[in-house]
Amino acid sequence: LPHGQIRDNDDEQGDVPKKQKYPYGVGFIIGNEFCERFSYFGARTILIIYFTKILKYPDDSAIDYYHIFTMACYMTTIIGAIIADTLWGKFKTILYLSILYAIGNIVLSLGAYVEKEYLCLMARISVYRVWYGWHKTMVIINLKTVAAFGGDQFGPGMEKQLEKYFSLFYAAINAGGFLSTIVTPILREDVKCFDRDSCFPLAFGVPAILMVVALVLFIAGRFICNYNMIPPKKDSVIVQTSLYRKLFTRRPKRDHWIDYADDKFDAQTITDIKGLMRVCFLFIPLPIFWALYNQQGSVWTLQAIKMNGNLFGSYTIKPDQIQVINPVLIIVFIPIFEYVIYPLCAKMNLLKKPLQRMVCGGVLAAISYVICGFIQIWVETKPDGTVNILWQLIPYIVITAAEIMFSITGLEFSYQQAPKSMKSVIQAVYTTTVAFGDIIVIIISSAKLFEKESNTFFFFGGLMVADMIAFAIMAYYYVPYKQPSPINNSDSDVDDSDNSKDFKKN
């Protein structure tokens, strides 16, 4: 595979059809994701300014609350994934939680309207925390279930189509983010409503409408294309059984603590759990990358507020609009990396494995923060509004290239390495690393380690380099999971003699 993914053994058995019909239902899934991401990024784009301008938070507190919000959103994906894989199934999980998602967005828009008319400042801050925090925490938990559900539409022997699906899926995410990052700041600042100088109710309301559209598209795909729906399994109970028996019962010693449930679960289920845990262990260093990446919407935006947004004397770019550079570059960079950079590197025997690309992406993220640090020094030594905002283009270009190599590759890798019964869970665990990245930002921001923001940028850059060194070492020793053969499901999921050598170059 071009991305160095592991092929299913299914396609090596000779019983796979030569040509399978393309699952056109993924078009509805990708459309759903586009609208949902417009809804999410549309609200998130203006959030830091809502905190500072309307709710009157100081910058440090606004940064903390912004990352608490994004942390809650991504942390709860694991809940939705467990429900999807073990209880409701992916379709029902996405459907039910999308309804809650839409309700939460509608309440948020209404809350932005009533807060000024009927509530004092402290009261509306409290109401905002409850409405926004609770609803968004509850409704975002189906995020990576959608990605896994789309992947389920592809059968054995369709690995290349699956790989392209993930690229299209990621492009849809960024297309939605691109449009929302342009539109919502305009609605926020240029539209006047309810006798105010801004219109946050409308800026939050349009994303709410798009979430309703996302729900309609998802339901339409069910009836028009008849989604392939894999029924949920109860495999997650094995973890509870194994832990209980290891800690509270006397049983013969096992090689692995999961093996304490070997009399209740078949060998393949146990090896699937072990494969899941190996991947989860590999995810430990990932939160540092997301700690850097997620600050585009907070620290980078606060830096942009102090810069000159005038472009060529005719248009002024708003500080929260500069974020649009990221999704635009993602859409442009994806085909460039797919068809130019990766093939050229492959000819030089470079970046052929997914984990190699992730390490390279992490190093690029560190470089982007070093660049931001030097820009911040310039901002700190000049009066506000002197340094042009276009200087931020340089770190945005670098961190977007980092995202292509790190995030898209990580999304594909986590899906390919997940046992078939745990696709949603592994996608959610991968997404949970984003939440832990926000926790890191909150801790460092609250600790106030540095007086100058430029030093904070350099600190994060150095932290990222150290993190990628650790990740590279872990990747060197990682042994990949192999999907079980349909002929003999009792076989081990790992061939140490072959695969460990192959992944020494990850």
Automatic annotation (TrEMBL):
GO terms for cellular component: membrane. It comes from the Eukaryota. SUPFAM superfamilies: MFS general substrate transporter. One of its GO terms (molecular function) is transmembrane transporter activity. Keywords: Membrane, Peptide transport, Protein transport, Transmembrane, Transmembrane helix, Transport. PROSITE patterns: PTR2_1, PTR2_2. InterPro entries: MFS_trans_sf (IPR036259), POT_fam (IPR000109), PTR2_symporter_CS (IPR018456). The keyword tRNA processing does not apply. The chain crosses the membrane at residues 65-88, 94-114, 168-188, 200-224, 275-293, 324-346, 358-379, 391-413, 425-445, 457-479. CDD domains: MFS_SLC15A1_2_like. GO terms for biological process: oligopeptide transport. It is found in: Membrane. It is a multi-pass membrane protein. The keyword Isomerase does not apply. Belongs to the major facilitator superfamily. Proton-dependent oligopeptide transporter (POT/PTR) (TC 2.A.17) family. PANTHER family: OLIGOPEPTIDE TRANSPORTER-RELATED (PTHR11654). This is Uncharacterized protein. It comes from Oppiella nova.
